[in-house]
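Summary for the lay section of the report: proteins are chains of building blocks that fold into shapes. Here we show the chain for 800_t:CDS:1 and then a coded description of the shape we predicted for it.
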Amino acid sequence: AVQVLITPKSAKAVSHQLRHILHEITRVVQSHSICDISSTPFPSQDLIE
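The coded shape description reads as follows.
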């Protein structure tokens, strides 16, 4: 697995996939946070714990 990441092409593909995953996670978290703000005073604290 480590040897595959060393190659530039694979590293570029992995970084692109990670960026896409992070974007999806951020989008989901933001949408959930917006929903939780109306019901709970500290939605971010609930998500962390």
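Put simply, here is one thing we learned. Helices lie at 2-6, 8-37, 43-48.
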